[in-house]
Every structure is written in C-alpha cells, then in structure tokens.
Specification:
elongated, mainly alpha
Length: about 300
C-alpha cells in the first residue's frame, strides 16, 4: 500500500513538472503576466507534493536534518500556495479590493507558517494537518467564490476557461477532501498512509496541471487549424454551402457552438444541423479530422 501511495505522488508530480516545463517555455516566448503567476502557484504546489511523497515513503529517522529541511520546505511551500492562489485569482478576476485581499491572505499564510512551526516544535505535529487543510480550503473556497460570481476579467479567455474547469473539479472533489482529510485522518495516520499533508492534495494538483496541459495543447492545435485555408476546390468537391463555409471557418478558429450561434445569429439547433451536415459530407468525425481533410484537398 505504501508503494501505491508513493506511485500516486510520483504520477501527480510527473504531470506537474511537465506542466511547469511547458509553462516556462511559453513564458519565454511571450512573457505573459498571468502565466508567470500560474507558474508561481504551480511551483509552490509542486514542492509540497514532492516533499510530501518523500516524507510519506522514506524513513528519515536516521537523517534528522534532511527530514527537518523537507518539512520546513513543505510548510513554507504550503503557506506560499495559500497566498499565491488567491493572488492569481485576483489577477484573473479583477476585484477592486484585490490588493487588500492579497494582504489578508499574505498575513494568513504567515500566521499559518508560524502556527505550524510552533506546533511541530511542541511535538504536536498531528495538528499541523488541520492548519494546512484549513488554509488550503480558505484559499480554494475564495477562488470558487470569484469564479462563481464572475467578476470582470482583464485576462485572456484561456485562463477564465481554466478556472471554470477547475471549479467543476473542486466542487466534485471537495466532499472527498473533507471526508478523507478530516473524518478519516486518524485511520490514515494509524495505517501510516499519510503525513500531515492532505492525502487528496496530489489529486487536486494533478487536475490543476492536467487541465492546463490539455488547454495549452488544444490552443496549439487550434492555432494550427486556424492556418488551414478553405479553398474553392474543397468547397466544390464536398458541395459545401456558403453558410457551412462560415461555420467551418469559425470551427477551425476554436469557436464553441455557442460562439458560432452568436457570430452567425442563428439558433443552436441550426448550428448543430450545419455541423452534422459538414461532418456527413466530408466523413470527418471531429474538427481535427476536418482540418486534415481540407489540407489534403488543397494539395
């Protein structure tokens, strides 16, 4: 079972390190401020997960100094995350009182770190879990509040969609987090299946990184598809109507059904009918295949 827990951690931070690498490469290309804040949140999260896996799996009783260093880094990173997540959310969802809220969470993170350090020095490390979990829940619930109320955003749509997907994941996982990390804490500690950090944290972390990877890959593919030119040869070969051509153009630019409906001023059923007809005529199963068919037809 201990090997399974370690593999669970290993899998999550493999996804995380891949995400950090991709985010760093994208940041070097466009110096996006939102991306830099995302990287800081993910980095603090990554350090917590890596240290958590090491503390859970390896026995550092003989290496007291190493154990204390790892624990110190874990506490520091967890507190950094408690501050950095709301700060990132405040940047995406522009609140007028964002600066004050940032200071409140900074103060909360500092108090969490001091409290965790005191509890550990007093040999009350079992209570550290509740401090970490409470701080993380405050940061997560505040983020959910901002997403649900949809404050005016000054950031690009990609990050808005990212937080919307993440909100759905958190709503699903929140009851599991509370159940496992509060009500089953004693059982998990007795079974030696966790340290003072929440056992559900790697799952949240993997979802956070996985959604970002998925969205960035999709954005890259959309960028490639938007370069595909709809030629007259393709239109005549597959007998594409004028309206269907407009729908194809919007699809290849990554527009959703709702966005196509708004752009063409038609009903949702009309949009679906056009797309069904396009796929039927071309034999494509999705817009990626459609883009490939258009490209082959032009050759």
């Amino acid at each position: 079972m201990k090997d399974f827990i370690f593999f669970y951690y290993l899998l999550s931070y493999t996804v995380g390190i891949t995400t950090l690498f991709l985010a760093f490469m994208l940041f070097l290309r466009n110096r996006n401020k939102a991306l830099s804040r995302f990287m800081l949140v993910t980095l603090s999260f990554t350090i917590v997960i890596i240290n958590g896996s090491l503390l859970s799996y390896f026995d550092f009783n003989e290496s007291f100094i190493i154990k204390q260093i790892l624990r110190f880094l874990s506490y520091l990173s967890a507190c950094a995350y408690i501050f950095l997540l709301p700060r990132f959310v405040n940047y995406i969802y522009g609140l007028k009182s964002a600066k004050i809220i940032n200071y409140v969470f900074l103060l909360g993170a500092i108090l969490c770190f001091i409290t965790m350090s005191i509890l550990y020095l007093l040999m009350l490390s079992s209570f550290v879990h509740y401090i970490v979990m409470s701080g993380l829940l405050c940061a997560i619930l505040y983020s959910l509040f901002c997403i649900l109320f949809k404050f005016n955003s000054k950031a690009e749509a990609l990050y808005i969609r990212f937080f919307q997907y993440m909100a759905i994941i958190i709503v699903i996982l929140l009851p599991v987090m509370i159940y496992l990390d509060f009500f089953l804490l004693d059982n998990l500690l007795r079974a030696n299946l966790r340290n003072e950090f929440p056992i559900t944290l790697p799952l949240v972390y993997a979802c956070w990184c996985g959604i970002f990877l998925f969205m960035q890959v999709r954005a890259l593919l959309t960028g490639w598809m938007s370069l595909v030119e709809i030629t007259e040869k393709f239109i005549s070969h597959y007998r594409i109507t004028k309206k269907e051509k407009q729908v194809i153009g919007l699809l290849l630019h990554g527009k959703s059904y709702k966005e196509i409906m708004g752009a063409l001023d038609v009903s949702m059923s009309t949009v679906k009918t056009h797309i069904t007809n396009i796929y039927k005529k071309t034999g494509a199963l999705n817009k990626m295949e459609l883009a490939q068919i258009i490209k082959k037809t032009t050759l």
